[in-house]
Design brief:
heterodimer, A: mainly alpha, globular, B: Rossmann fold, 2 domains, 10 helices, 12 strands, 37% helix
């Protein structure tokens, strides 16, 4: 009964073209934002913020990046982990070179380096599609991993080969480094993710997003209508890599505090692809749901035995965890191949007409 | 009947000089010659049909016209511009738009978005504005939405405006595709079997839309169609192809009486 659009008349195209045309959706978004910005920082424990919310948001951003490329433009990529790495390493170099510049600004700027590299590795997409493109993006993954190990300049010639985040302050608040508080880091991550989600949603609903989807659905017809595949594909690679790059920089600077090349290996790329597929290809909500499913569920499952007072050793819990997650992935994909985003929209549709079946 | 100057048809439409001249086009795929030395013209404002048995090279001809295939020999003049090779993008820019034999819609997008997509060339507001979806980008979006709504109105697609086209029945998909082609406001509209697989009522509807487009917007139309009844009814002039060669060209009644055409369709008595 609460979720009804009856009586909400749209009298111009601007209202009808709004991203959330239904009032209840707009209220819901405000509610989520209020919870995220006010309730969680005040009541969330450090553990909850540090090992659940921050990584969830970072993975969401990377999943949005991959979704722009794979879900909206139809170019499957297995190089997203490496593009996160490009963001992380370039943020590290930027912080080294410009020690006095605002570190948040540098984190966002590092996305441009990832975008540049992404555009270069996107060039093969002009000639090849599908599985063959997957192979070339995997080549990008291997090449960049190699670069992160073999170019010592990237990690300032450290003996360990790892990048460690220095302490940086913005307006006298410690933002990065071991002394930075969870809440500060959480609020920065949240702000960046919210703004970038908003931008992604704007792009997708406009001319550029349509050109991406045209390429995805029928590239021949798209070209005939006047979309240049070069611009559409390369811009998708650039935007996607930008998002992955910023996510990678945040991952090192605002979550882990230090990272090695292993953080950006092909497992990371696969993990992101799983998030996007389970969450829903071509859906921003799906990116959130997918990241929540893949990242938060294991954390919750790990905490369950303790909650019920069961004494199971950690290794067993970990094994059971893998089995449950694996089974759930298969289960979800069987009942809804289009991902959790589709379930979400079906649920909303049911709610709209409730208590009637249709 | 002479089509050299502006003429007026029986139903009061004006037909002008040639918009497109196809001269001696030959298209080969390896050793196979798909089109051999074909020439014809398309006049401003007319409905021109290309017919012929399966494999006659009709679709290949359309593909040459809008730049999917590059002919080895011959040239095409469109609105005074002669091009022997061009990309589909340039065909779109110069005002040629088309539909496909097998519906080539963007199946994941709504009807509205599909037709909006047809206006891709008319929208150009930059990346920064698109990121903000504000100011010029939003104004442009609204302006084109208004034009698209007129097409939706014209083709009676209001009720499926927000439905993803993948879920629509075949007849409606064909209509959405016509809408998408119209959204570009083409000066030459190529229709590849617009009525394939339709029942009689749907064919009547589609014929009405084609005639209305031609009449109201003055769009020059070239169509490929297998339903001879439809072709004879709506076309002003007909080109007949067989085995990649042109065997006849003229008004529907002329073509109907042509012995070569009858032989091609019915076989030569032995």
């Amino acid at each position: 009964m609460l979720y009804r659009e009856s009586g909400q008349f749209k009298t111009n195209y601007k209202q009808d073209s709004a991203i959330f045309p239904i009032l209840q959706d707009r209220i819901a978004i405000m509610f989520y934002l209020a919870v995220a910005f006010i309730v969680i920082p005040i009541f969330g424990s450090n553990f909850f913020i540090d090992s659940m919310m921050i990584p969830f948001l970072i993975f969401t951003l990377a999943a949005i990046g991959l979704n722009i490329l794979t879900g909206y433009t139809g170019q499957i990529s297995l190089g997203s982990g490496a593009f996160m790495g490009v963001g992380a390493y370039s943020a590290y170099k930027l912080v080294t070179i410009f020690p006095d510049t605002n570190v948040i600004l540098l984190i966002v700027l590092s996305g441009f380096f990832a975008a540049g590299i992404g555009m270069i590795f996107g060039l093969p997409s002009l000639r090849i599609k599908g599985f063959y493109l997957v192979v070339t993006t995997l080549a990008a993954q291997f090449f960049l991993e190699w670069a992160f190990i073999r170019i010592p300049w990237l990690y300032n010639y450290n003996d360990s080969g790892a990048i460690e985040v220095p302490r940086r302050e913005v307006m006298n608040v410690i933002v990065t480094g071991p002394e930075a508080s969870s809440v500060t880091r959480y609020l920065i991550v949240l702000s960046i993710v919210v703004v970038m989600t908003w931008i992604a949603s704007n792009l997708i609903h406009g001319r550029i997003g349509r050109s991406w989807m045209m390429i995805r659905d029928m590239d021949i017809a798209a070209e005939l209508i006047g979309v240049r595949p070069l611009y559409a594909k390369i811009s998708a690679f650039a935007v996607s890599s930008f998002y992955c790059g910023v996510a990678g920089a945040m991952m090192v600077f605002l979550w882990l505090g230090a990272a090695e090349v292993e953080s950006f290996d092909s497992n990371q790329s696969f993990l992101l692809l799983f998030m996007v597929i389970i969450g829903g290809l071509g859906s921003l909500v799906g990116s959130y749901l997918g990241a929540a499913f893949i990242w938060m569920l294991p954390v919750v499952l790990r905490a369950l035995p303790k909650l019920f007072g069961l004494d199971i050793n950690t290794a067993t819990v970990e094994h059971i965890n893998f089995m449950i997650i694996g089974a759930l992935i298969v289960f979800f994909l069987i009942i809804e191949p289009n991902g959790m985003a589709r379930m979400w929209s079906m649920l909303k549709q049911k709610l709209r007409v409730w208590p009637f079946p249709y | 009947m002479s089509f050299d100057q502006t003429t007026t048809t029986a139903d009061g439409r004006t037909i002008g000089g040639p918009v497109m001249e196809v001269k001696n086009i030959t298209l080969r795929f390896g050793g196979v010659t798909a089109i051999k030395d074909i020439s014809f013209d398309i006049l401003e404002g007319e409905i021109r049909a290309i017919i012929g048995p399966n494999g006659a090279g009709k679709t290949s001809m359309l593909n040459v016209i809008n730049g999917f295939y590059h002919a080895q020999e011959g040239q095409i003049t469109f609105r005074g511009e002669t091009r022997s090779r061009m990309r589909p993008y340039h065909a779109a820019v110069s005002g040629i738009s088309r539909t496909f034999q097998n519906v080539a819609l963007f199946s994941g997008m709504s009807t509205l978005d599909n037709i909006m997509a047809g206006r891709a060339l008319k929208m150009n507001k930059g990346f920064i504005w698109q990121m903000l979806r504000y100011g010029p980008a939003m104004n442009e979006e609204i302006k084109h939405r208004r034009a698209v709504e007129e097409i939706i109105d014209f083709l009676e697609l209001e009720h499926i405006r927000h439905t993803p086209v993948g879920q629509l029945p075949y007849g409606l998909q064909k209509r959405v595709e016509l809408g998408r082609a119209l959204a570009a406001e083409p000066s030459l509209l190529l229709l590849d079997e617009p009525m394939a697989g339709m029942n009689v009522e749907e064919k009547e509807d589609m014929s009405r839309y084609i005639l209305d487009v031609n009449d109201q917007f003055g769009t020059t139309i070239t169509l490929i169609e297998h339903d001879m009844g439809v072709v004879m009814d709506i076309a002003d002039r007909v080109v007949v192809l067989d085995y990649g060669k042109k065997i006849a060209d003229g008004t529907p009644s002329e073509v109907q009486r042509n012995q070569a055409v009858i032989d091609a369709y019915l076989g030569v008595p032995s």
